[in-house]
Design brief:
170 residues, 1 helix, 8 strands
């Protein structure tokens, strides 16, 4: 049982990943993980499909099917290194990270937002990796469209803090 936290702090300009045993597993042999990086060093963000499943539930003769897609995010740095935290995320959470980096790096480059059509493929192969944000072309990747420019909620003093509990027994 591990508690995992991903913090992206625009005010301090740092990203941090912490993994530690939950309070119920303190005396177990699980190790802590702590990784910190500068947000200015992030060149691109990629996502890798972790799980794509369809579930069917029979309820009163009706059959419902839904597709559940989860991703792992990967940060690529300007020095050629990369970091992929051991966290599984929903598409909305990856989109929040992409929108954060777009607004964080907006002052570092002169790029006008573009409207990109969204396409949703019918099949999501597991293990597929795609770039969803790049410092060189922040609005070029169709996975997550640009945020509405009329909404003024992209201040750098906001932070992204995601906490995840992983209850896998290995």
């Amino acid at each position: 049982m591990m508690d995992k936290t991903l913090i992206i702090d625009g005010q301090e300009s740092v990203g941090m990943f912490k993994s530690q045993p939950s309070k119920y597993a303190k005396f177990c042999c699980l190790s802590k993980t702590h990784r910190q990086f500068q947000l200015a060093d992030v060149k691109s963000v990629s996502q890798t499909t972790v799980k794509s499943s369809q579930t069917s539930n029979d309820s009163r003769g009706y059959r419902t099917t839904q597709t559940i897609i989860t991703y792992r995010v990967r940060f690529d740095f300007v020095n050629g290194q990369h970091f992929q935290p051991e966290i599984v995320m929903k598409p909305e959470e990856v989109q929040q990270i992409v929108q954060f980096f777009r607004s964080f790096n907006q002052g570092r480059q002169n790029v006008t937002p573009q409207s990109i059509p969204i396409s949703y493929p019918q099949y999501y192969p597991v293990g597929t990796s795609e770039t969803v944000y790049s410092l060189d072309a922040p609005y070029s990747y169709p996975a997550y469209p640009p945020q509405d420019p009329n909404i003024q909620n992209t201040h750098l003093d906001k932070s992204i803090i995601k906490k995840y509990a992983n209850f896998e027994v290995t």
